[in-house]
């Protein structure tokens, strides 16, 4: 059995895909009312409407019901991960923990695997990330993801365990690079949404995505990640997806900012907290991150879109 902690859209979609591939999956939600609804209807209408839960998916609000699961997928928002790990660390002992979150903890400036290693020392952390929308995974559309783990043997085991007929898993030994790619692309996706929302055009978006990738790579390499990881699914692949599709919540938030419109505060947008964390992290390391700084300022309503565009376009000319 595999356990999935977090019955949001992505956690539910992973549970559905793995169960269709023949795995027994335990889907955990902290809200007992949501669990009761899912158990009765065999759907998660709150988070992933219209998708049937296969017979192989068991839902519960009690993590101890999945004591037999040697692999646990952590599919909760990044800013909630530290609290969830702290509350359940004892129950997770002896298991492999696979983070499915994309972000940087705002309080500690840690990525998912670093957070796991600190809060639950002794547990084996890995990360599953890459270009994917929950709706696509749940519908059985072909999706390729990166599974990154520092332990080659554990990584190979998890790669086989988490693969499914329409879910192709590529293995990486660079969890730092994989998690940074997944986190940083959300910041650039907000900026891309701003460009389109403000009517600045497709050429401007292409330029922003290109310079955004350079910015992502600059910070990731400074922190010790591998360049080839950023050029793979977890970096460039995810960046392309989220900067070009309105299915991305980060892109939609950027569009709303570009249009001067409000955005539903109940919708989790990982890139907002990540942008603020990235700006702090980059300042500590002396890495120039003008797009991340611009997104941070826009999300905190410290500048207008016009001021952000003028500041970026008036930067000194330089070599590519």
UniProtKB/TrEMBL annotation:
GO terms for molecular function: glycerol-3-phosphate dehydrogenase [NAD(P)+] activity; NAD binding. GO terms for biological process: carbohydrate metabolic process; glycerol-3-phosphate biosynthetic process; glycerol-3-phosphate catabolic process; glycerophospholipid metabolic process; phospholipid biosynthetic process. It is found in: Cytoplasm. The active site is at 185 (proton acceptor). Pathway: Membrane lipid metabolism; glycerophospholipid metabolism. Signal peptide: none annotated. NAD(+) binds at residues 6-11, 134, 249. One of its GO terms (cellular component) is cytosol. Keywords: Cytoplasm, Lipid biosynthesis, Lipid metabolism, NAD, NADP, Nucleotide-binding, Oxidoreductase, Phospholipid biosynthesis, Phospholipid metabolism. Its EC number is 1.1.1.94. InterPro entries: 6-PGluconate_DH-like_C_sf (IPR008927), 6PGD_dom2 (IPR013328), G3P_DH_NAD-dep (IPR006168), G3P_DH_NAD-dep_C (IPR006109), G3P_DH_NAD-dep_N (IPR011128), NAD(P)-bd_dom_sf (IPR036291). Residues 2-153 form the Glycerol-3-phosphate dehydrogenase NAD-dependent N-terminal domain. Sn-glycerol 3-phosphate binds at residues 102, 130, 132, 185, 238, 248-250. It catalyses: sn-glycerol 3-phosphate + NAD(+) = dihydroxyacetone phosphate + NADH + H(+); sn-glycerol 3-phosphate + NADP(+) = dihydroxyacetone phosphate + NADPH + H(+). NADPH binds at residues 10, 30, 102, 134, 249, 270. Substrate binds at residues 102, 249-250. Coiled coil: none annotated. Residues 174-309 form the Glycerol-3-phosphate dehydrogenase NAD-dependent C-terminal domain. Its main location: cytoplasm. HAMAP family: NAD_Glyc3P_dehydrog. Catalyzes the reduction of the glycolytic intermediate dihydroxyacetone phosphate (DHAP) to sn-glycerol 3-phosphate (G3P), the key precursor for phospholipid synthesis. Belongs to the NAD-dependent glycerol-3-phosphate dehydrogenase family. NCBIfam families: PRK00094.1-2, PRK00094.1-4. This is Glycerol-3-phosphate dehydrogenase [NAD(P)+].
